[in-house]
Design a protein that fits this description.
Structural class: alpha+beta
Radius of gyration: 14 Å
CATH architecture: 2-Layer Sandwich
Number of strands: 4
Number of helices: 7
Oligomer: single chain
Strand content: 15-25%
Strand order of the largest sheet: 2-3-1-4
Bound molecules: adenosine-3',5'-cyclic-monophosphate
């Protein structure tokens, strides 16, 4: 059975452009409940740990630099079938391929500065949520 939580980040490009509020509005209107949220900033080292799964990819160094270039919003979201439904809401990684009306189609600037992150599995949603929030911070 699919889990009911996913993890998201509003990335530095979207935060800097002042789009956090509009993105959170789309997330809530799509039926997701925000159960933990904070504005924060990653160091390059922390960005590297978060994206360690991509450490062999050619874009990894740039990704760590970009993800630590400014503030982000990190949040845990709750909804039935959360991981899959959220990935539908945000659209393809490359905004050029994202469907009309998706968050990335509307707000992303490039394949790297693609406005938001969404977990790709229930397992990673739990790991990524725990990266930013301890148990006490996500009790609601
Ligand atoms: P995200 O869904 O957070 O997962 C990995 C991130 O790496 C991705 O979004 C993009 O921000 C970034 N990225 C940069 N280049 C690429 C690429 N060619 N393919 C996939 N992800 C990329």
């Amino acid at each position: 059975m699919a889990g009911n939580r996913t993890f998201t980040m509003i990335k530095p490009d979207a935060f800097e452009a002042g789009n956090s509020g509009a993105i959170l509005k789309m997330i809530e209107e799509a039926g997701f409940k925000i159960v933990a949220m904070k504005a924060t900033r990653l160091t390059p080292e922390l960005a590297g740990k978060f994206y360690a799964v991509h450490s062999e990819r050619p874009f990894y160094a740039d990704l760590c630099k970009y993800m630590s270039s400014g503030p982000i919003v990190a949040a845990i979201l709750e909804k039935d079938n959360a991981v899959e439904d959220f990935r539908t809401l945000i659209g393809a990684t490359n905004p050029a391929n994202a469907a009309e009306g998706t968050i990335r189609k509307i707000f992303a600037k490039s394949i790297e500065a693609n406005a938001v992150h969404g977990s790709d599995s229930d397992e990673n949603a739990a790991i990524e949520g725990s990266f930013f929030f301890n148990q006490y911070e996500r009790v609601i």
